[in-house]
């Protein structure tokens, strides 16, 4: 049995736009390791230089992953610490790294997360959609038929649904979501988060799809699309109705308070009265 202590694999989140969204711990670990496995070394170099990180880089992307994983695991086994980064955000989240982490864990190597930016979570944090339960769907299939059938599978989901989308398909995908989920389903388009043209638009799907077609600027850059789960709107109306009802009840008979609270919130009067 070897007496060499294996190194650790540090899985480090990098910014999704604003280059200062790199934590102090991320900088420290990227400086301390012997090697950084990066999705695209040319892409990462300016960020690393900005933070005075001079650690050697090794490319690890979907086309060389098998060979690169072997190299990295060997170096970890020889006692070196290695960091994994992707082009933006958290590695493995619609980014390479799954095979490396799996192989490292299988080899008994400790994998240490250094959390930070993730576009899905950043978008959810400002969308104003229910965030207690959500589902991350990543990228939809590029072909229209497969995309619609994936959306169809999600129609009944009551959780907030989060998608990544590229600039050249965002209009098409929003149109498909409108057709499948219905024109009135609430949705949010979070574009260019943490960057100069950051925009967060929340509207029913029909209005959002139309706005993105009418304004090509809204198609530029990087996008997260969030769609409210089925029934989320009714739940939100009921909660608002109950809040208003509780206030009015102090001043009015219950039937009158329920009628007014229903008119103000859009919640069904009967449900308020019964509550
Ligand atoms: N690993 C990344 C993360 O943690 O979010 C995601 C990488 S994935 C290849 C890239 C996609 O993430 C983009 O096409 C877009 O959907 C989303 N994304 C990344 N940065 C973004 C940003 N600044 N604003 C909005 N969406 C972004």
Lay out the secondary structure:
Blueprint: E1 9-12, H1 24-32, E2 35-38, H2 41-50, E3 57-59, H3 65-77, E4 82-85, H4 98-106, E5 111-114, H5 119-127, E6 134-139, H6 144-154, E7 160-165, H7 170-181, E8 186-191, E9 199-204, H8 205-214, E10 223-227, H9 232-248, H10 254-265, H11 269-274
Parallel strand pairs: 1-4, 1-5, 2-3, 2-4, 6-7
Antiparallel strand pairs: 7-10, 8-9, 8-10
Helix pairs in contact: 3-4, 6-7, 7-8, 9-10
S-adenosylmethionine is lined by residues 16-17, 86, 88-90, 93-95, 118-120, 164-166, 190-195, 222-224.
Tags for this entry?
275 residues, alpha/beta, Cobalt-precorrin-4 Transmethylase, domain 1, Methyltransferase, Cobalt-precorrin-4 Transmethylase, Domain 2, 3 domains, five-stranded parallel β-sheet, five-stranded mixed β-sheet, 10 strands, binds S-adenosylmethionine
Task: Give a description of the structure.
This protein has 275 residues and is of the alpha/beta class. The protein folds into three domains: 109 residues, 3-Layer(aba) Sandwich (Cobalt-precorrin-4 Transmethylase, domain 1), CATH 3.40.1010.10; 110 residues, 2-Layer Sandwich (Methyltransferase, Cobalt-precorrin-4 Transmethylase, Domain 2), CATH 3.30.950.10; 42 residues, no CATH class. A five-stranded parallel sheet has the order 3-2-4-1-5, with helices on both faces. Strands 6-7-10-8-9 form a five-stranded mixed sheet, with helices on both faces. The longest helix is centred in the last third of the chain and has 17 residues. The radius of gyration is 24 Å and the shape is elongated. The mean pLDDT is 94. It binds S-adenosylmethionine. S-adenosylmethionine binds next to helix 5, strand 7, strand 8 and strand 10.
